[in-house]
């Protein structure tokens, strides 16, 4: 779709034979915030490589100021700048080459101008480039060609020692091109150099914005803490215009940077632990494993089909007691049918209604998890009925699982990568198979059963992120989840070792988010070697903010995601306020059943309000009752 900017500019272009473009910030964007960031990258790489401590950034800035001060011309060259740096020639030559390398590496085409450039070619206009720039002409030409731009001629201030700002470079172009000032339109981002300079030369001009905020979710003001954040934000802002859906933008801007950095964290931990076998657990590590493959780390990685549903039955076979069973019951404020609870553990009792009645329990009644843990009737039901089922059916599942697991990790102990929360998968596998895996998690909510592990964001409820992330855990799980169904059981054949439930109910949404994540990983990949080992906290903080203080758009969009719990309800989809005004009991029930209560409240009441604080108050009050 042609936007208003393109429509107006294309109409202007029709009136001229020659179209000139400014280069930097018009045709070409840098994946850093300013040219000074290129100097910082050079400094960091040089000092790391040479084990030196040269303050190149400061020296480079001072040298340019000095070179301009002593020059008799309007413009200076890169060589003249380096002549003013007081270092040995061999060091200066190395630094100069590195600066050029980084200029080439960190430039990308301005997505918003590509269509205009192509239109000029289509209309057979003569296209030239005019730029105030100290880089050599052959380097600028290479930058343009690398980014898909070809020109009839390139005019640089450092070549002709004249600048756009004075108007003299434009006048030189008119002389060399042998054209009238009425036949050329100049397009650029600088009010001074491009607009005022064109005006001084009596040339028509069209101004474009130097910096556009293209992002939906993140802002540059959040990204000022490190060069990593600077590169991440600039890359996202320069490239995110290619997406049409809110889910793709969310994956690209917010989840992508977290996934890529988490992959680097996993890789570094694997080296630290001296382990080569890494299992990425289904379904939550599906996209993480895909990104990990893209980054081409050298460990032996496998996608491990597993779930609590598939693991609990073989685990209970090895530990067939009510005490073990009650410790793996879900931590939930919701009540549940006993039959549904057992099915979630792959336990399917025949004539369950009849069997429950023998123990004063009812198939049609919802029971709280806390009640079931303390109920002597439920304990007797487990010991006499459920335990027999586990003994008869669990052995086969245990043998099949063990065979499948050993095919993935022939050397025994390895690394298990998962979202985390309670680290149940690692605990169960280690106990079942009497091994010692090392776990790497996004976060752990409680660690009393875990010994060998590390976490990327939080470890236990002492971390500032824990409570807030926990409040929208359902969104995190959906974002990371695979499109395929949950693993439900294991087969004897290694050609078909597992059985899956039907596809993810949120498949279309997940595919869009994952497309954004993979696009981000591809776009940031060339720059990862330049990163420090610093987490992108400005992204993590934004993710947390979106879940705990959502905009109405975000609450509506993500509130319509379906929960994959037994009810398959939308996670935050309230009824009308007028309905709840007359049905307060239904409001309490719907809020209690919502998997994202903050989003539920935001959609319902719309107004800006600290809904997370209200959620936290209600949660703490409930916890005290329990």
Topology at a glance:
Elements: H1 4-13, E1 18-21, E2 28-30, H2 35-50, H3 56-70, H4 78-82, H5 89-105, E3 107-109, H6 111-122, E4 126-131, H7 137-146, E5 153-156, H8 157-160, H9 168-177, E6 184-188, H10 191-200, E7 204-207, H11 227-239, H12 246-273, E8 277-281, H13 286-295, E9 300-304, H14 308-318, H15 322-327, E10 335-337, H16 338-343, H17 352-357, E11 366-368, H18 369-374, H19 376-408, E12 415-421, H20 424-433, E13 438-444, E14 453-459, H21 466-470, H22 473-480, E15 487-490, E16 498-500, H23 507-524, H24 537-548, H25 552-559, H26 577-582, H27 584-593, H28 597-605, H29 611-625
Parallel strand pairs: 1-4, 1-6, 4-5, 6-7, 8-9, 8-12, 12-13, 13-14
Antiparallel strand pairs: 2-3, 10-11, 15-16
Helix pairs in contact: 1-6, 2-3, 2-5, 12-13, 12-23, 12-24, 13-23, 14-19, 14-20, 25-28, 28-29
User: How many beta-strand elements?
Assistant: 16
Average of the residue pLDDT scores? 88
Q: Identify low-pLDDT runs.
A: none
Radius of gyration: 31 Å
Helical content (DSSP H or I, runs of 4+) = 40-55%
Helix-strand makeup class: alpha/beta
| Strand arrangement, major sheet | 5-4-1-6-7
Global shape: elongated
Instruction: Summarize the main sheet.
Output: 5 strands, parallel
How much strand content do the residues show? 5-15%
Our count of helices gives 29
The separation of the N and C termini measures 57 Å
Tell me what you see in this structure.
With 626 residues, this protein is of the alpha/beta class. Helices cover 53% and strands 12% of the residues. It contains 29 helices and 16 strands. The strands form five sheets. A five-stranded parallel sheet has the order 5-4-1-6-7, with helices on both faces. A five-stranded parallel sheet has the order 9-8-12-13-14, with helices on both faces. Helix 2 packs across helix 5, helix 14 packs parallel to helix 20 (424-433) and helix 25 (552-559) crosses helix 28. The longest helix has 33 residues, at 376-408. The radius of gyration is 31 Å and the shape is elongated. The chain starts with a helix and ends with a helix. The model has no long low-confidence stretch (mean pLDDT 88).
């Amino acid at each position: 779709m042609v936007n208003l900017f393109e429509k107006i500019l294309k109409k202007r272009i029709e009136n001229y034979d020659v179209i000139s473009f400014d280069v930097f910030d018009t045709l070409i964007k840098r994946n850093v915030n300013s040219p000074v960031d290129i100097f910082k990258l050079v400094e960091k790489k040089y000092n790391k490589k040479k084990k030196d401590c040269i303050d190149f950034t400061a020296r480079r800035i001072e040298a340019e100021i000095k070179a301009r001060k002593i020059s008799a011309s309007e413009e200076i060259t890169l060589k003249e700048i380096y002549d003013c740096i007081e270092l040995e020639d061999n060091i200066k030559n190395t630094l100069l080459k590195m600066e050029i390398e980084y200029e080439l590496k960190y430039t990308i085409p301005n997505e918003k101008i590509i269509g205009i450039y192509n239109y000029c070619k289509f209309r057979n206009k003569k296209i030239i480039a005019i730029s105030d720039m100290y880089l050599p002409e052959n380097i600028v030409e290479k930058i343009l060609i690398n980014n898909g731009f070809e020109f009839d001629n390139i005019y640089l201030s450092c070549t002709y020692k004249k600048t756009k700002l004075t108007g003299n470079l434009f006048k030189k172009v008119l002389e060399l091109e042998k054209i009238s000032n009425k036949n050329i339109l100049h397009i650029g981002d600088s009010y001074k150099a491009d607009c005022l300079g064109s005006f001084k030369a009596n040339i028509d001009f069209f101004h474009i914005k130097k910096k556009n905020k293209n992002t939906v979710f993140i802002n540059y003001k959040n990204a000022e803490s490190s060069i990593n954040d600077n590169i991440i934000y600039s890359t996202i802002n320069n490239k995110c215009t290619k997406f049409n859906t809110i889910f793709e933008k969310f994956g690209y801007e917010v989840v992508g940077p977290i996934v890529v950095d988490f992959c680097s964290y996993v890789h570094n931990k694997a080296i630290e632990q001296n382990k080569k076998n890494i299992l990425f657990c289904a379904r939550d590590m599906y996209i993480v494993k895909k990104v990990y493959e893209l980054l081409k780390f050298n460990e032996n990685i496998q996608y491990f089909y597993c779930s609590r549903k598939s693991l609990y039955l073989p685990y209970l076979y090895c530990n067939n007691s009510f005490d073990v069973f009650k410790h793996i019951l879900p931590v939930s404020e919701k009540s549940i049918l006993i039959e549904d609870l057992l099915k979630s553990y792959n336990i399917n009792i025949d004539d369950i209604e009849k069997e429950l009645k023998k123990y004063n329990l009812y198939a049609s009644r919802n029971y709280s998890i806390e009640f079931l843990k303390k109920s002597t009737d439920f304990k007797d039901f487990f010991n006499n009925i459920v335990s027999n089922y586990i003994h008869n059916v669990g052995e086969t599942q245990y043998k099949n699982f063990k065979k499948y697991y050993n095919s993935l990790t022939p050397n025994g102990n390895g690394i298990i990568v998962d979202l985390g929360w309670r680290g149940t998968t690692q605990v169960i596998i280690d106990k079942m198979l009497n091994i010692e895996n090392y776990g790497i998690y996004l976060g752990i909510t409680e660690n009393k059963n875990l010994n060998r592990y590390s976490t990327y964001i939080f470890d236990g409820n002492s971390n500032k992120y824990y409570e807030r992330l926990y409040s929208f855990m359902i969104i995190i799980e959906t974002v990371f989840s695979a499109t395929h169904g949950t693993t439900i059981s294991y087969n004897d054949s290694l050609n078909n070792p597992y059985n899956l439930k039907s596809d993810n109910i949120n498949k279309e949404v997940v595919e869009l988010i994952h497309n954004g994540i993979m696009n981000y990983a591809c776009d940031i990949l060339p720059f990862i070697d330049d990163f420090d080992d610093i987490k992108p906290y400005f992204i993590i903080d934004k993710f947390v903010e979106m879940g705990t203080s959502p905009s109405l758009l975000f609450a509506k969009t993500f509130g319509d995601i379906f929960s994959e719990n037994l009810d398959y309800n939308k996670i935050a989809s309230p009824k009308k306020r007028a309905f709840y005004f007359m049905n307060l009991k239904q409001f309490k029930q719907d809020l209690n059943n919502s998997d994202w209560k903050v989003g539920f409240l935001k959609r319902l009441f719309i107004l800006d309000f600290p809904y997370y604080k209200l959620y936290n108050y209600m949660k703490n009050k409930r916890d005290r009752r329990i």
